[in-house]
Structures are given as C-alpha cells and as structure tokens.
Amino acid sequence: MRAPMSEPANHAQVIQAMSDGMYVVDRARTITLWNAGAERITGYGAQTAVGRSCGDGLLNHVDDSGQSMCGERCPLLDTMRDGEPRAARVYAHHRD
Description:
Layout: H1 7-17, E1 23-25, E2 31-34, H2 36-42, H3 46-49, H4 75-82
Antiparallel strand pairs: 1-2
C-alpha cells in the first residue's frame, strides 16, 4: 500500500493533469509550477518557465485590445496587494 501524498504534492499532481493551461507563482511572482496545458498554449516548457518571473517578458500578457497587462496593470499583482479576488480575460503570446 502506498503512503498518502502530502496535500501540496496532491495539488501539483491535479494541476499537472489539467488540460487547461495553468501556472503557479510565489509572492515574488516567480513561476513555481507550469503544467502541460501552459506548455501547449505558450510553446514554453516547464524547464524554461519555472524560476522565471511572470512579468519578465516571457508571457507578454495582454488584454482584449492587445494592451500589455504586465506591471501596474497586472490583476494578479493587484490581488496579491489587497487580497481581493479578480476575474480578467488575459492572453499570452505563443513563443513562435
């Protein structure tokens, strides 16, 4: 019988199995987890993305009108600052 997985390991396994693209950042906005869906959507593998800052130009998040959302327009940064949940339509450029 296998020992039960720790909760963080279980969460990572669920995120990796998702077909949707998802990544996790720490408080410094450093990418700590990058799933296969994010790899498919962006063209960047986990080995390239993990350890990078989400705002360093790798993802180039933009809104519906193509305006950059990195920096002061970042909804993730706003949520980290005030703890309020937000919903936003955000697009990332593909590597190619």
